[in-house]
Amino acid sequence: MLNSIPLVDLGGNLDPAVPAARKAALQLHEALSTIGFAYIAGHTVRRATRDAAFAASREFHASTLEQKRSLAINAFHRGYMGMATSTIVTSSVARVTRPNMSESLMLMHELPPDDAGLLAGLPMQGPNQWPGWLPGFKPAMTQYVSEVDALGRYIVRLVAMSLGLEATALDHHFDHPTTFLRALHYPPQPPVEDDQMGSAPHTDYGIVTLLAQDDSGGLQVRPRGGDWIEAPPIPDTYVLNVGDMLARWTNDRFVSTPHRVINRSGGDRYSLPYFLDPGMDALIECLPTCTDAQHPPRYEPVTYGEYLLERLDKNYAYRKPANA
Q1: In the CATH scheme, what architecture does the domain 7-319 have?
Q2: CA distance readout (Å), 51 to 55, 68, 89, 188, 208
Q3: What share of the chain is helix, strand, coil (3-state, %, to 5)?
Q4: Are 188 and 266 in contact (CB under 8 A)?
Q5: Is 313 helix (H, G, I), strand (E, B) or coil?
Q6: Euclidean distance between the first and final Cα of the chain, in Å?
Q7: Cα–Cα dist 139/25, whole Å
C-alpha cells in the first residue's frame, strides 16, 4: 500500500506527441489507479503567474468583511463564501456535522455577454463577481486561470492516452467546460485535536483538481484501505487528484480518494484549487476501454450537471431555503 504520493514530471511541455508524454501518461495511470493523487512537476504555469494569484488572494482576504460580503455567493455559485458556511454532508467517508473552518472566493468559467446559457439563466452560467476595490485582482486571476487551464486540459489528454484512447478523445467534453477557481483562506486552528477541520474529509465532484498550496501544509489524503497520510507542499508542483466523475467515467479504475485539511501551522493557510470539469450537459458514461465482460459498467450514465447540482444543493448553506 502506498504511504506517499507519487510525482509525475511532465518535462516542461504540454505536447502529447513527444516521447516524454507517453512516459508521463503511464506514470499518471499508475498513480491515479492506486492512490488517486499525484504531484505534477515540469508543468508550464509560470512561477510569477502563480505568485501573483496567491498575492491577489491574500489581498482579497485581508479586505474588510463588509467588502467581502458585498460579493456574497450567488445562485450561479460565484462569489464570497464566509467562514464556516459549507458543511460536506454528502461526504461518503465521514459523518460531517461541523462546517469547514475556511472562507473563499469562488470564480468560475468566464462567459461572453452573448452566451446563450448566460442569457437564459441556466444553472452555473452567470457572471463572476470581482472585487472592484482591488484593480489588480482580476488581471492576476485571469492570467492564472489561463495557464492552469492549459495544464488541466493536457492532463485530460494524458488520462485519455493512459486509457488506450487517442489523446484528443475526451476533448469535446470540455468545449464549454465547467471550471472553478477557489481562492481559499484557512485561519490557524488550535493545536488541540478535535473534530473541527479546515476542510472535512471528502472527495471532489468532478474530473480533475489541480491544487496550488502555500508552504503551510495541512493537506492529508487517505489511500484505499489505509490511514491518513500527509501531502506536504513540494515547491513548483501541483497536487493533482481524481474527482468522482472521473472515477465513474473510468469504471472505478481511477480512484476518487478522500482528503481533508487541518491547519495546525500556527498561521494562515492559502490555497488555490482549480477544478476542470465538463460542460453541464456532458453525459458521463463508462469509457469503452474501461469495461469488458468481466468488468461491466458499475454506474448508470449521468450528466455532469445533474450530479454537480445535487451535491451543491446539499453542501452549501446559501442554496438551502431560509426556513430549512
Answers
A1: Sandwich (2.60)
A2: 6, 22, 33, 21, 22
A3: 30, 20, 50
A4: yes
A5: helix
A6: 43
A7: 33
Q: What is the grid cell recorded at 288?
A: 469503452
| Sequence-distant (≥ 6) Cβ neighbours of residue 192 within 8 angstroms | none
CA distances from 179 to 71, 73, 120, 143 (A): 19, 16, 19, 15
Could you give the CA distance from residue 52 to residue 28 in angstroms, rounded to a whole number?
28
Helix (H, G, I), strand (E, B) or coil at 163: coil
Nearest Cα to Cα of residue 138 among 176, 110, 115:
110
pLDDT in tens, 264-302: 888 999 999 999 999 999 999 999 999 999 999 999 999
Provide the residue type at 58 as one letter.
Answer: R
DSSP string, 77-88: S-EEE-TT-B--
Q: Which amino acid is at 192?
A: V
DSSP 242: E
Cell numbers placing 208: 480533475
> Sheet containing 229-230: which strands, arranged edge to edge?
199-202, 259-261, 219-221, 229-230
3-state secondary structure of 232: coil
- Cβ-in-10-Å burial (0-12, 13-18, 19+) of 205 comes to buried
**pLDDT (tens digit, 9 = 90+) per residue, 11-51?**
999 999 999 999 999 999 999 999 999 999 999 999 999 99
Q: Are 21 and 109 in contact (CB under 8 A)?
A: no
- 208 beta partners: 242, 276
- What is the residue extent of each domain of the chain? 7-319
Around Cβ 291, how many Cβ atoms within 10 Å?
16
Grid coordinates given for 150: 492549459
Q: How far is CA 31 from the centre of its chain?
A: 17
Helix orientation angle between 47-61 and 137-162, rounded to the nearest 10 degrees: 130
Buried b (16+ CB within 10 A) or exposed e, 159-192: bbbbbebebebbeebbebbbbbbbbbbbebbeee
